[in-house]
Amino acid sequence: MNKNPIIKGYYADPDIRYFDGRYYIYPTTDGGMWKGTVFHCFVSENLADWKDCGVVFDVARDSKWADDFAWAPTAACKNGRYYLYYCANQQIGVAVANQPEGPFQNLSVEEPLLSLSKLENGVKLSQMIDPYFYSDPSGKNYLLFGNGENPAIAELEDDMATLLPGSMRQIAFIGQADFTEAVMVFYKDGLYHFTWSCGDTRSENYHVNYGVAESVFGPVKVVGTILEQKPEKGILAPGHHSIVEDPGTGEYWIAYHRFSTSLPEHVGGEQRGYFRELCLDRLEFDNQGLIVPVCCTP
């Protein structure tokens, strides 16, 4: 169905969503030592052919706290409005639009929605990065976020632009999680399936681990690694992913980035971690309902 990379150019940290009968990817714009300011949106009707909608949001515009380091957006829809939660300067803000392809208007003009100074309930993080929006079957909406030893989660208010006071919690792991960043979750067959990225994204060994929980707050029982490098295929540093269900077929797909495979001028050292490409592969489950390791497509 697809051939990787799925999109031309240097992009990373894809957030894949299904809105109004079409698929959307919101990624980090790569290159330049990660100091970009803009986000693009890509749209597809079949997961194979992707159209660039252009720049949908600039973090440096109409903001008193965000200059650059625009990373890892995540999108949401509620009551016909679309929300983009984004990183800038290692803090998290939110913007809003009337359609999924934007343009988005900044709601976090005066200050960020989340910063390390806004942690509560004993939550500890190294960096305030990598938001992920999750809508629970209960009807509640959450943001997952953070870099460090453990991620965090907080409930969103009905306005989608503020957090419910006192709702922030640290997510605990049972087992060796090796958590670094980019946590996400989805609910399937009675379990919360958590996935997260491990290591430095500039390392060939950057990878994705997986665990399950009975609650969206954890604790998460670690299962193992589901996405990792395949040097024999030229696939290095796959990670910072998101997962979407095809509502028509019930199939699941994982979008992720890896080192660009067409950059001979950047083959050495950490430079590869600044030039990444977007990939998409099918997500499979075993007879116990657990995710099996991803078969990466070259």
Automatic annotation (TrEMBL):
Molecular function terms, GO-annotated: hydrolase activity, hydrolyzing O-glycosyl compounds
Highest taxon, organism lineage: Bacteria
Gene Ontology terms: biological process: xylan catabolic process
Residues the record marks as site: Important for catalytic activity, responsible for pKa modulation of the active site Glu and correct orientation of both the proton donor and substrate: 130
Swiss-Prot/TrEMBL keywords: Carbohydrate metabolism, Glycosidase, Hydrolase, Polysaccharide degradation, Xylan degradation
Stated family: Belongs to the glycosyl hydrolase 43 family.
The protein, known as: Family 43 glycosylhydrolase
Organism: Candidatus Limivivens merdigallinarum
